[in-house]
Write a structure and sequence with these properties.
Distance between the termini: 46 Å
Order of helices and strands: HHHH
Radius of gyration: 21 Å
Strand content: under 5%
Structural class: mainly alpha
Shape: flat
Length: 144
C-alpha cells in the first residue's frame, strides 16, 4: 500500500486535475457555442470539430485505457484534452479554414489525432493474434 504522503499527493493531483478539467472544458464549450459571426454554417461546424477532435480521437480513449491503472493520469488526460483542442484550433485558423479551399486541413489534423489510438488498436490486435497462435502451438505440442 502507499504511504500517507503519497496518498495525499495523489488526492491533491486528482483534485487539481479536476479543477483544470472544469476550467478547460467550460472554456472550450463556451468558445464552441459562442459562434463566430463571419463564418458560414459549415465553417462553424468545422471549427467546433477542430476544437473537440483531439479529445474525441485521442485523449478520451487514452484516458479510458489509463483509468484502470492510474486514475490521476486519466483525470489529467481529460483535463488537457480541451487545451490540445485550442492548440489544434490555431493551425487551421492560421491557414484560413473559413475559406472552402483550405478546409482539407481539418481532415488531415483529425487523421493525425486518430493515429495514436489506431496504432495502439493495431498493436493490441496483432498481440492478441500472436497470443492465440502461441496458445494454439502449445496445445498442439502437448498433444504429441
Amino acid at each position: 500500500m502507499l504511504s500517507e504522503p503519497f496518498r495525499l499527493m495523489r488526492t491533491f493531483l486528482g483534485l487539481a486535475g479536476l479543477a483544470v478539467a472544469l476550467l478547460a472544458w467550460g472554456t472550450a464549450i463556451a468558445v464552441s457555442h459562442s459562434g463566430l459571426p463571419y463564418l458560414d454554417k459549415d465553417a462553424g461546424a468545422l471549427i467546433t470539430w477542430v476544437l473537440f477532435c483531439p479529445a474525441v480521437l485521442c485523449f478520451l480513449p487514452f484516458a479510458g485505457m489509463a483509468l484502470q491503472r492510474n486514475a490521476v493520469a486519466a483525470v489529467w488526460l481529460v483535463a488537457v484534452a480541451p487545451i490540445a483542442g485550442v492548440a489544434n484550433f490555431f493551425v487551421p485558423a492560421s491557414l484560413g479554414t473559413p475559406e472552402p479551399d483550405s478546409r482539407w486541413v481539418v481532415w488531415v489534423l483529425s487523421f493525425l489525432w486518430a493515429c495514436p489510438v489506431g496504432y495502439v488498436g493495431l498493436r493490441s490486435l496483432f498481440a492478441s493474434r500472436s497470443a492465440r497462435e502461441q496458445a494454439r502451438r502449445s496445445t498442439d505440442e502437448d498433444r504429441f
